[in-house]
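In this section we walk through a basic example: taking a raw amino acid sequence and producing a predicted 3D structure, encoded as discrete structure tokens. The instruction is simple. Fold the sequence below.
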Amino acid sequence: MQKDIVLNQKRQKEQLLAGEYVPRTQDQFGKKWLDSSLIKVVLGPRRAGKSVYSLMLLKGRPFMYFNFDEEAVAAMDATDTHALMKELHAAYGPIKTVLFDEIQNLPRWELFANRLHREGYNLILTGSNANLLSKELATHLTGRHMPIEILPFDFNEFLRAKKFTIDPQYASLPEQHGTLLNWMEKYLQNGGFPEVVVSNLDPRDYLQVLFDALLFKDVVKRHKVKFSTKVSLLGAHLVNNFASLYTARKLLDVLDLKSATTTEKYISYLEEAYLIFSISRHSHQSARRIKSPRKVYVVDNGFVSAKAIQHSPDKGKLMENLVFMELVKRGYEPQRELYYYKTRNNREVDFVVKKGIEVVGLYQVCYESVNQAVEDREAKALVEASGELKTDNLTVLTWDEKREVKRDGKSIQFRPLWEWLLEKTEI
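The resulting token sequence is shown next.
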């Protein structure tokens, strides 16, 4: 049986390698580490492109491939990894580079990976659970792995998939500018899951099914959740209340969950499955950070549109969610380098971005045309926070407005979201 699975997957591998590929922002990072002795661990939600990314990283060199996310594999004797390696070598020959797909489905996979690593194999592993990065990897592969996170397409990748290129010197021409804004609107609403972008599938239908599959496979099934309806309601509630503050206590009351501890546990499961992210309020006092409400974001805007109960989600909040996910894609870690903030006068700043102990940027996001009242509101919050957090990098991300505003000796950049998303440099 193992032999048939290995040979069938070998054919699938060749078919995938022959297909067209949208270059990913993480390509160079992956190539840099490919020949190192570290175990490369490619993490991210299901259907975000981890497998194709990993295959294309290895294109042009000999490597073995095995996918643990198949029904036939689940029926195999999971403990007989020696037999698996025998069949792989029978199919591929004496090759020491191996790509294992969705390896979290193999019980005690980390012991298997460690053994192969000691035997000199060059391992590339993919997994759909952020917990791989925290518990299993930290415990068993400390200092011997390099995580590579693959999330749904960023806006650069989205445009590459749509075969749309824009020369900055012609960006202001009406046709180019209008087309760019049209793509920006589609990306804002439908998100960046590769199959939605490349295959032109109906985003709502596809993403509804994908969300429910992720919830079942990576939350209910993985964690053996007894009350699956409760965790499903929690997931849907958080997605419908994206870019909003929440506390476990309020969720407990709204959804009639068992306890605050159970609520927190379910939230952590949803985060591990890459469905949602949470950020805390920035404060130098740990007690305030812990006690303050957290803010929830969704891994992809398409999930919001697909699961939204309201007729049309708030565009300002969709922009905010997009900005949050772009900051994550640029490598800023929620709860450590990425926060929201409230000033002493209770004015809220959407995002505080840190490097180490230094605050390197403050961001506000607003969709509406920037009139004087909006400008005053956003500028006051940024100027106050700038003084309190000692940073002068102040940005308001707008839909399509670019200018500089001076307030109380501070310079605030109002920038179009598309321009910020397309820039190659970090903050």
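Looking at the output, two observations stand out. The mean pLDDT is 91. The domain at 2-149 is CATH 3.40.50.300 (Rossmann fold). In the next section we compare this with other chains.
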